[in-house]
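Query structure, 256 tokens:
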């Protein structure tokens, strides 16, 4: 049986006249996109441009909600209540869904960004808030998450879950990501990233920063579009996976 994988990146992460990364070039390589919804990056014009580009290329559209932390790029803990997390997710998703509807399409997945994405993996109250929002918004919605509290809460709510493998981030022995504030948290060597990704998808393991082999059953591989050389890195990852016999396809087309 051919192994399938989705290839996703965080896109639309500019603001006003400022742009981050080469989204247009990345979209020629990806099969899905996590689109910033305004709280950590993005605005109405950028969301519109990004959704239109996804539709033109047949790329799956996902909401990428964050803590309300524009200055900190969503990477700070804002000390919110679970109810605040829920309403902030609803607000951001609604904005992107309206733009998607205008372009004759819909948002098919939800992937929390930055510090929110880290905390929903370990905080049950945040995970339940995001899962409840997603389930009420659209029972067919896919929740992208690492193994942890959000994945569990989404499954309990009857939602499909796409487990994310992150190509260019170092892992702790327990399967969580190394904090960005620590040395070596982000991997920059393209060949190492390509090797790690193929091993993660084909063999189902990834090596922690301490050399521990961690089981990973990922459905989608995340490439960070804001890193240097992101486009070429995405191309190399895709080429490596295809050379290993992996089919690259949008998650919503095949995830059961």
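Result returned for the query:
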């Amino acid at each position: 049986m051919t192994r399938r994988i989705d290839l996703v990146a965080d896109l639309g992460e500019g603001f006003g006249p400022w742009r981050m990364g080469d989204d247009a070039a990345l979209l020629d390589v990806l099969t899905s996109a996590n689109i910033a919804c305004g709280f950590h990056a993005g605005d109405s014009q950028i969301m519109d441009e990004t959704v239109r580009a996804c539709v033109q290329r047949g790329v799956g559209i996902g909401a990428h909600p964050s803590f309300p932390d524009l200055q900190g790029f969503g990477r700070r803990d804002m000390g919110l209540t679970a109810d605040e997390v829920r309403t902030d997710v609803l607000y951001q998703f609604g904005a992107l869904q309206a733009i998607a509807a205008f372009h004759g399409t819909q948002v098919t997945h939800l992937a929390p960004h930055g510090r929110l994405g880290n905390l929903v993996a370990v905080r049950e109250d945040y995970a339940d808030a995001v899962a409840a929002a997603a389930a009420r918004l659209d029972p067919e919605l896919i929740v992208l998450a690492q193994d942890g509290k959000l994945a569990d809460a989404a499954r309990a709510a009857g939602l499909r879950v796409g487990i994310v493998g992150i190509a260019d981030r170092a892992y702790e022995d327990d399967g969580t990501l190394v904090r960005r504030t620590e040395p070596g948290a982000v991997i920059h060597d393209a060949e190492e990233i390509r090797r790690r990704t193929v091993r993660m998808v084909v063999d189902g393991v990834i090596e922690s920063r301490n050399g521990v082999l961690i089981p990973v059953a990922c459905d989608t591989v995340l490439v960070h579009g804001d890193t240097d050389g992101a486009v070429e890195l995405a191309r190399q990852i895709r080429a490596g996976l295809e050379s290993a016999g992996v089919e690259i396809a949008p998650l919503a087309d095949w995830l059961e």
